[in-house]
Amino acid sequence: MCGIVGIIKYKEQIETERIKRMLNLISHRGPDNYNIFENGKVHLGHCRLSIIDFSQKANQPMNYKDEIIITYNGEIYNFQELRKILEKKGYKFKSRCDTEVLLLGYSCWGEKVIDKIKGFFSFAIWDKKKQIIFCARDPFGKKPFYYHSNKNGVTFASGINSLIEGIGFKPKIDYKQISSYLLKGYFEAGFSIYENIHTLKAGHFLRIDIEKKYLKTGSYCTPKFNLKNNDNINYEEACKKSEELIKKAIKKRLISDAPLGTLLSGGVDSSLITLMANEISLKPINAFTIAFREKKFDESVYAKKLVEGSNIRHKINYASDVNLFSVLSKMVQIYEEPFGDYSCMPTYQVFGSVKKHLRVVLTGDGGDEVFGGYIGANVYLLRKLAQPFFKYFSFLFYKWPEILLSSKYRLLRQISYAGIAMRFDGADLFYSLFHASWTAKQRKYFMRKEGWTKTGKNEIEKKMRLKYKKSGKTDMEKYLNLNLERLTELFLTKIDRASMANSVEARCPMLDIDLFDFVSKLPEKILFHNKIRKSIPKDILTKNTNKKFAYRRKMGFTPPLSCWLRDKKNIKQIEKTLLRPNGIIYELFEPNKIKLILKKHKSGHDCAGKIWKLLFLDEWHKQNFS
C-alpha cells in the first residue's frame, strides 16, 4: 500500500523538485521509503508503506533490465501463483514482493498481465522500448488514480492535491459536478471537482504513447450483476460455494509481514470475516471495534457477544467527543474534495485507533453490495411483486411520496419508498434511496437562479436516468449494478482516504473478484432467498453464531450527526458558516431558504445529510479558494 506520482513530458525536462513536492503531499500513504526515477521525458515517484518484504529490494520505482520501470500501489493476492509460473518460464526474482511479480509479469505478457492479476491496485509501467506508459486501476476502484493531460504531457498522482502540485496551478471548479455531489454525495465516475482533472475509472487502463503524444483509456474489466434465470444451483449449494470462496479470499488477505487484524463492527460481514480469519490464522486474530456512547448508534455490544469464549484479541475504543467544525476541517484535508458520506468521521477514528498496533486490517466492506444487503433491495423486491398492477394504480403514486421522504417518522419514510416503488419508472425509486439527496426539485427551489443554471440544472438526473436504463435487464439488476458505482465512488473512497491518512492498509475479502463472479450470476431467488436480503452471508454466520444474532436489524456505521446539528453550540455556527457572503453556499443558494432547512432539521426532520454536504462543500471551498 503506497502512493504513486508521475510527470510525463513530450519534450525532455527535469522535474525532480516538483516530483519531491508531489510525494511530500502523499507521504502518509507511504511513510517508510520514497524514491524517484527520471529518464528525460518520464518522471516517476513512489512512497512506500511496507507490508510484504521490508528489504530495500522491494522499494520502488522498480526497474527490470533498465527496460521496464514500475510505480505501483496496492496488493496482488495471487502473486505467489503467478511467481511460480514466471519462474518456470525462466524469470529470476530478487525480492519476495508482489511488485516484482507485476513488473516481470508485464515483461512476459505485456498489457495482458492485467487479465491475470487479482487484487486492488493502481500502477504505471514505463515501457522504454515501446515508449509507452501503461497504467491501470483495479476492477472495483479501491486505489485512486487522478490524472491531468494537455499538449505538453500527462501528470498523475494518488492524491488530488499532489496532482495539482504536479501541474503547477489550481484548476477551475467544475460547477456541474456540484450537482452530482449534492445529489449522490460523489462525482460522476471519471470526474473530479476540478475542470480537466480526471479519475481513471475502476477496471480501466490508461495508455500514454510518448512519441505520438497520444492518450487512450478503455475498460478491461467491468464487474456487473447478470442474474440468471436457471435452476442449475440450489440455495444450499450457493451457500456452501460462497462460504468456500469467502474463506479463500480471507486466507489470501492474511498474507502479510506486517502486524494484521480485523475491524469488527458487530455487523454480519465484519463478524463473519473475523470468525473465519481467526479460524484460518495460525495465531489468535486481533479485532478492533469502535463504539458510540449513544446506544442508538452503538453496535459494539454485538461485537462483544461474538468474541465471547474465543481466543480473539478484542479491543474496543469509544468514539471521542467531536468538535464538529474542527473534525470537518480535518476531513476536508484528508478527502481533498467535497465528500458526502459523514460516516467518514468515525471511519477515520477507527483507523486511528488501530495504527499503533496494526499495519493491515481486514474489513467487511463490500458485503452489502455483493450480496444485496441494503434496505433498498426490499423495496425492489416489493416493486417486482407490484408490477402486474402498475397500469392500473401507478398514477396514484406520482406526487405525494416525496413529501414524506424527510419525515420525522421512520414509518412514513418507509411508506414513501413503497409509494415510489409503485411507479412505472424504477429510476425514481433508485435515486430516492439516496435519502440525503438534494434532488433537482429541491436544488431548483433552494438555489439562486444563477446557481441552478451554473450547476447544470437537472442534467445529472437526465444522465442518471439514461444510465439506469442501460444498467441491467431487470430493475433488480439495475439497482445492484448502480450500487457498484456508489461502492467505488463513495464507500471505497471513504475507506481508502481514512485508512491511508493513518498509514494503515485496508483489505476487503467481500470484494474478492472470484467471489463476485460467482455471486453476481446467481438467480435472484437464490441471492434473495425467501425474499430476504443478504440471506447467504446471514445463513453462513448463523452456523457460527445463531439466527437471532445473524438476522437482527441492520444498524450501519454512522455517527449521531443529526443530534450534533441540533446542539445549541453548533446551530449558530452552522448558520453563520452557510451564510458567509464570500462562501460558495451563499454564491449558489438563497440565504433565506438555507435558514428554512436548518429550521426544519431543528424541528425534528432529518436533514443531516443535506446539511453535511453544504458544510463540507463550504469548508472545502474556504480551504482552497479563500
Keyword list:
single chain, 626 residues, alpha+beta, Glutamine Phosphoribosylpyrophosphate, subunit 1, domain 1, Rossmann fold, six-stranded antiparallel β-sheet, 28 helices, 45% helix
Instruction: Trace the largest sheet across and list its strands.
Output: 2-3-1-9-8-10
Query: Averaged pLDDT, please?
Result: 92
Structural class: alpha+beta
Report the uncertain regions.
none
CATH architecture of one domain: 4-Layer Sandwich
Number of helices: 28
CATH topology of one domain: Glutamine Phosphoribosylpyrophosphate, subunit 1, domain 1
Folded structure, characterized:
It contains 28 helices and 17 strands. With 626 residues, it is an alpha+beta fold. The strands form three sheets. It has a six-stranded antiparallel beta sheet with strand order 2-3-1-9-8-10, with helices on one face. A six-stranded antiparallel beta sheet has the order 4-5-6-7-11-12, with helices on one face. Strand 8 and strand 9 form a beta hairpin. Helix 2 crosses helix 3. The longest helix is centred in the C-terminal third of the chain and has 27 residues. The radius of gyration is 24 Å and the shape is globular. It starts with a strand and ends with a helix.
Summarize the structure.
The protein is an alpha+beta fold. It is built from 28 helices and 17 strands. The chain is 45% helix and 15% strand.
